[in-house]
Write a structure and sequence with these properties.
The structure holds two protein chains of two kinds.
Chain A lengths: L1 H12 L6 H9 L2 H30 L2 E2 L7 E2 L3 H9 L1 H32 L6 H14 L3 H10 L5 H8 L15 H11 L2 H13 L2 H9 L4 H29 L3 H6 L11 H11 L3 H29 L7
Antiparallel strand pairs in A: 1-2
Helix pairs in contact in A: 5-9, 5-10, 5-12, 6-10, 10-12, 12-15, 14-15
Chain B lengths: L6 H35 L22 H8 L6 H32 L5 H13 L6 H10 L7 H4 L8 H12 L3 H9 L4 H12 L1 H17 L2 H6 L8 H9 L7 H21 L1 H11 L4
Helix pairs in contact in B: 2-13, 3-7, 3-10, 4-7, 8-9, 10-14, 12-13
The chains are: A mainly alpha, B mainly alpha.
Chain lengths: ~325, ~290
């Protein structure tokens, strides 16, 4: 470091003799300049594709904007309409909450249970890990959404398999308001593999000495799980909970392809409602307002989860 | 303890072992069943796909579904859609990985004014769900004249806007000893030279991880394609499948399943060949797969 600044001193003495080209090279090679140059892609991207749309969005949310005509300032009208005069807003919010609150804990529960099972090293563990992780890799695709729709169709594989067990069923899983949402929930839970991998990695981090010491003190496997494994996993569970909740609130593709919100809007996700409002009914101002409300809800939910953190998430005491 | 294991507990352990494998294996097969069902259905004659839905293995095997599927619809071959997706996913991914790497280098290794602010901004891009910006982004791209082109699907990604990748690469750079940078600096390397000659070659594992995740996400991306691509000829695979599956447009379920299987091939190949990178990526950064 000192050597470097010495070199800088020597360089400074020759400053006048340098051509403008050399000066330019030297300017760009200053650390403070190089840093900005190297971050330039992000600076431009952040401004152009995040900040500008954010500001536009806030502005549009206070306007009546049909995309084809220019926006008309209407103040808080969009927000007031949403809360007082749009049953579909409440319906979609309810459906989305229901979906997130049921599917996320189920997904994490499966992920944790299977991770604990796969902790044991056997010759087949590699295969099991692949089998459980593959659905996560494929689950976000349109192909799997289409598959899901056909599986739960009246003549689909679910009813056929039930038929093999003697239950002669022509039940319309997607057409019945009571079951339609569950097809989406199963699809979400089916993709527990990536959370499972995160849990497996966290389990590996737990020092074996802890278990050994506990065994010495006579702790059985349930005690070891309850007092060592679970507390040390809570930070990972917390992290997963937040990430999965956010993506649950914002689910779109699966609902859009499998149910389109039918039947009777019992599967109408917030994002699909927002999409329809903006691009099918051309109420872009209203759509922008919906986006801000969702951002607020996600923010409040995250804060609430953080507020519960100290009651159940184990933190290592700093010495 | 192990010396004193009696015959009966050993047998008990053996039984437990078998029960464990049967349970875990059965559940794994159940998990894979939907995919297997689609795969085998795509080889059944199309009119028997649903009448034999309960039967996994086709009684007559046929490739007709693939022939019909690849023929596409309204005169556009399915190969065209695969090509479109390949083009979009590859360019967007190369852009993401390259820009994220250099930004990660700047944020991790260089000291300059505003670095902390940029870091916070980067964390915000990670937290802020992209869907929130759906509407304004559309209107903004429309102003830029980007609608009905691939621009919105590619250009933004070339500006490191996915904080996940920057963060992943930053973590990796953390593990590269600072002394390498300093040695290169003493040898007269510029800051750019340090990145290209010292850091970049060592980043390979992080770059591969970012590449495969980005590629899979871009390949599967449905929402932005739905919003911005309107010419049938320009459709990526995800959108073409949606068109294929729309009620009324076809009743050729065999062909639809065949093309669904084809669309999953890239992800499955990546999964089989780069599993290690995927697992590392998920475990170290909590990326969702």
């Amino acid at each position: 470091m000192r050597l470097h600044s010495l070199m800088g001193l020597v360089e400074d003495m020759d400053e006048e003799k340098l051509t403008w080209k050399q000066k330019l090279v030297r300017f760009f090679n200053r650390e403070s300049v190089a840093g900005v140059v190297c971050s330039l892609p992000f600076i431009i991207g952040f401004l152009a594709f995040m900040v500008v749309p954010m500001v536009l969005s806030l502005f549009y949310s206070f306007t009546d904007y049909s995309i084809v005509a220019s926006p008309q300032w209407v103040g808080l009208k969009n927000y007031i309409t949403m809360f007082t005069d749009d049953p579909l807003f409440w319906q979609s919010l309810w459906v989305t909450l229901l979906f997130a609150v049921i599917s996320v804990p189920l997904k994490l529960g499966f992920a944790l249970a299977v991770a604990l099972l796969l902790q044991r090293q056997t010759r087949l563990t590699g295969f099991y890990r692949i089998a459980y992780y593959l659905p996560s890799i494929l689950g976000g695709s349109v192909a799997v959404a289409i598959l899901w729709r056909r599986m739960f169709a009246q003549d689909g594989v679910i009813n056929s398999v039930l038929g093999l067990f003697g239950i002669n069923s022509h039940f319309s899983w997607l057409g019945d308001p009571r079951t339609a949402i569950w097809t989406l929930i199963t699809l979400s839970v089916w993709q527990f593999g990536s959370s499972m991998l995160i849990f497996l990695a966290a389990l590996k981090q737990i020092p074996t000495e802890l278990y050994e010491a506990a065994s010495m003190d006579g702790a059985g496997s349930w005690r070891r799980f309850k007092d060592i494994t679970m507390p040390l996993l809570t930070p990972t569970i917390f992290f997963n909970l937040i990430m999965q909740m956010i993506s649950g609130f914002l689910a779109f593709t699966q609902c859009y392809i499998i149910t389109q919100g039918k039947p009777l809007n019992t599967t109408l996700f917030y994002m699909v409602h927002m999409y329809n409002t903006s691009f099918t009914y051309y109420q872009a101002g209203y759509g922008a307002a919906m986006a801000w409300v969702m951002l607020l809800i996600v923010g409040v939910f995250t804060l609430l989860l953080f507020a519960t953190k100290r009651f159940w998430v184990y933190e290592e005491k700093m010495k | 303890m192990s010396m004193a294991v009696s015959h009966s507990t050993a047998r008990h352990g053996h039984q437990r072992h078998i029960v464990y494998h049967v349970l875990v294996c059965a559940f794994a097969l159940l998990m894979l069943y939907p995919i297997a069902w689609m795969f085998f259905s795509s080889f059944k004659p199309t009119n028997t796909v649903f009448s034999t839905a309960g039967q996994l293995i086709p009684s007559t095997w046929t490739l007709d579904n693939y022939v019909h599927g690849f023929a596409g619809f309204s005169g556009v071959s399915f190969w065209r859609y695969l090509g479109n997706s390949l083009f979009i996913a590859t360019t967007a991914t190369v852009g993401t990985v390259a820009s994220s790497a250099i930004v990660a280098y700047a944020l991790k290794r260089l000291h300059f004014h505003g670095r902390k602010v940029l870091f916070v901004a980067m964390m915000i891009t990670m937290m802020l769900p992209a869907q929130i910006l759906l509407v304004p982004q559309y209107l903004w791209y429309q102003k830029l004249g980007w609608t009905n082109s691939y621009m919105p699907l590619i250009v933004p990604y070339c500006f490191a806007i996915q904080g996940f990748f920057v963060y992943l690469i930053m973590n990796f750079i953390d593990g590269i000893p600072l002394s390498l940078d300093e040695a290169a600096k003493l040898d007269g390397c510029s800051y750019y030279g340090i990145f290209f000659r010292v850091i970049l070659p060592l980043l390979k594992p992080a770059l591969v991880t970012s590449f495969i995740f980005s590629f899979m996400w871009r390949w599967d991306d449905f929402l932005s394609a739905l919003m911005y691509v309107s010419d049938t000829e320009k459709y990526p695979v995800a959108l073409a499948l949606k068109l294929f599956s729309d009620p009324g447009s076809t009743s050729d379920y065999g062909a639809m399943f065949a093309m669904c299987c084809v669309s999953l091939i890239p992800s499955i190949l990546i999964f089989l060949f780069f599993q290690r990178y995927l697992v590392n990526g998920v475990s170290t950064s909590g990326l969702k797969g």
